[in-house]
Every structure is written in C-alpha cells, then in structure tokens.
Amino acid sequence: GYFESGTIVGYFEPASGLALAALLIGGRRYAWSVPLGAFLINAISDNSLWEVAIVASGDTLQALCGAWLLTREGKFDLRLQSLRDYLRLILLGGGASIAIGALAVSTVLLASGLLAPGNYFHSLIQWWMSDMLGVMLIAPLILVWWGTKNDWREAGKMIEAVLLLGLTILAGQAV
Q1: What is d(CA 141, CA 5) in angstroms, rounded to the nearest whole number?
Q2: From the centroid of its chain, how far is CA 104?
Q3: Which pTM value belongs to this model?
C-alpha cells in the first residue's frame, strides 16, 4: 500500500527486478511465471480485467526483452563482478527494456480508452521510473546473492541465513 500511487502504476515496482533476475538465472523456462505473477498481483487491485491483462503483458514484455538484451551476446556475467556488467544490467535490462514495456502499455491503455490523453506522458514516465527502480535495487541484490558460493545451502548455513534475515526484519520493525 505504501508504494501505490492511486493509478495503474505504483511508485516502486520490486517485481520488475524479481522478474528480470528470475529470467536471467533460470532462463526461458521461468517465462511463464512472469505473466502469471503479474496477473495475480494486479488482479487484487481495483483495476478492470483489461487493465490487469494489459499491465501483465507489459511486465512480461519488458522482462523478456531485458533478459534477451543482456544475454544475446553472451558477455553478461550474472555475478555482476564488474562495473560493466552492472551498467549493462541498468541500461539494457532496466532502461531500454522498461522503456519498451512502458511505451507499449501506456499506448495500448491510451488506445483502449483506459488512460486519458492528458495522463499519457505522466503514466509513461511513472511506469518507467518505478520499474527502473525495481530493477536497479532488486535484480542486483538477487543476482549477487545467487552467485555467491553454494555452501549457504547447507543446513547450518541455512539456519544462519534465516536467523540473520529474521533479526534484520526484527531490527527494521523496531526502528
């Protein structure tokens, strides 16, 4: 609720970073989860079924486009061990692919009459900024975490990770 703006697009969309990271890590076999997740999360809103379907399609388009742009040359390292890889993630996986998704969704919403012409530019920019923020903050966090040594999956390390996460959440709530 804190990230909602009262319109179709929120202020911060962490799911865009999650979707991109899932496609980069798992490949096309996870592509079905993006429209399903986007549809379900948007279905609990007060938006019409058409708006939900259009937004879910745009989320899917931008995640697939971002994964394709990053992996098409085979030079992208998922562990983000260089500034070049991080900048590619931000510029191609975030900026370019989200611009395509935002433009497509805003245009379809405008053409279908679900978006007023006066709100077109604002919706376009807000979609781009909120999803870009999600990619900038969430995707690197997941990719770096996933690229760490696999010894965290051992029972002792898993308990330690859960305790650290729990204490972090508890401290955040106390603050």
Answers
A1: 25
A2: 16
A3: 0.79
Reported residue count of the chain is: 175
Q: How many whole angstroms separate alpha carbon 172 and alpha carbon 123?
A: 32
pLDDT, one tens digit for every residue, the chain (175 residues): 444 444 556 678 888 999 999 999 999 899 899 999 988 887 887 778 888 888 899 999 999 999 999 999 888 998 888 999 999 999 999 999 999 999 999 999 899 888 899 989 998 999 999 999 999 999 999 998 887 766 656 777 778 878 888 888 888 788 7
Query: Are 93 and 135 a contacting pair, CB within 8 Å?
Result: yes
Could you tell me which of 102, 106, 105, 104 has the C-alpha nearest to residue 132? 102
C-beta separation of 129 from 7 below 8 A: no
Reduce the secondary structure of the chain to three states and give it as a string. CCCCCCCCCCCCCHHHHHHHHHHHHHHHHHCCHHHHHHHHHHHCCCCCHHHHHHHHHHHHHHHHHHHHHHHCCCCCCCCCCCHHHHHHHHHHHHHHHHHHHHHHHHHHHHHCCCCCHHHHHHHHHHHHHHHHHHHHHHHHHHHHHHHCCHHHHCHHHHHHHHHHHHHHHHHHHHC
Distance, CA of 87 to CA of 70 (rounded, Å): 11
